[in-house]
Design goal:
Helices cover 21% and strands 35% of the residues. Helix 2 runs parallel beside helix 3.
Length: 167
Amino acid sequence: MRAEFEKVTWVRSASVRRIWPDRLEISLEEQEPLARWGTDALINTHAEIFHADYAGDLPHFVGPVGSEREVADAYRDFSDILAKAELKPKEILLSPRRAWQVKLASGMVLDLGRVEMRERLTRFVAVSKQVPELQERKGRADLRYSNGFALKLTGTALPKQAHITKK
């Protein structure tokens, strides 16, 4: 019976216990989606891939086979850092070469590279707090520099009074 319950798409795990003389106790744990994975799957809060229909709004993860836990953990870390500037990740991508990319809900794409991702993201957040217009802009930020980052923004220019200084 347990195996049959676990075949149901939205059941993560099931347990069946017999209570003598004539009863069964059945416990079901429901899948809790964290994000979309690749093109046709979901990933749950335990970093396990499952296949089901879901119409809700979820972030999107992409990564090599076997990187589910790493991507889910990075999403949590990146979300915590970005929340300090009221930014939200919409997509997390881990390339086959292990380079990270984050697409924000605003449309801004952040290239983090393969090392020091947290530090690079923290530096971007600090500048975003100084220049709030960055939080609403689309474009691309290359954060792979050791002491700064490059921006390519789309749309209107930053206001003339916006100056970014290094502290």
